[in-house]
Amino acid sequence: MAPAPSTYSAITLNINGEKYTLPVDHRTTLLDALREHLDLTGTKKGCDQGQCGACTLLIDGRRAVSCLQLAVAAEGRDITTIEGVAEGEQLHPVQQAFLDLDGYQCGYCTPGQICSALGVIEEHAAGWPSAVTDDVRPEAGPPPLSAEEIRERMSGNLCRCGAYVSIVQAVAQAAEVHTAEAGETAA
């Protein structure tokens, strides 16, 4: 009789520009690998069912809820957690906007909100439509990033404290900074 296959593998994760090699059970979520194996606790565990967005991070620049992502499936991908958003002591414009406009209250959902906002801003700049975008033709270009667009695009992230008005304002402010920086880079 053949031996039972192992349920563990050594994987290497590229997180915030650093490589981490660790043994994980194949059933370990990326969220649990980050929090329990690597002590990267900025990404929060909320519902553990992919419904609240508290565990949102970026994988290859796109938003993902880490509680539904298996760690073994993230091997070889670029993972950005809240710990990797700032440049040293310099806050990212999204983080600064959340701070300036009180886009947080208890702060529990804030890491996921910020990572989601980063994804929203990039998706919008790339011209991706949302469910509320009026004209989805590629030649129409990106729609204005209105409060309605931001609310729709951020709808996968819940805030138990109800800081939604400030969150929408913070995303709008950060998007303006992103647009201005993109214009400076193009010039």
UniProtKB/TrEMBL annotation:
Keywords: Iron, Metal-binding, Oxidoreductase
UniProt KW Glycosyltransferase keyword: no
Highest classification ranks of the organism: Bacteria, Bacillati, Actinomycetota, Actinomycetes, Kitasatosporales
Protein name: (2Fe-2S)-binding protein
CDD domains per UniProt: fer2
Domain called 2Fe-2S ferredoxin-type: residue spans: 9-85
Signal peptide: none
Originating organism: Streptomyces xiangluensis
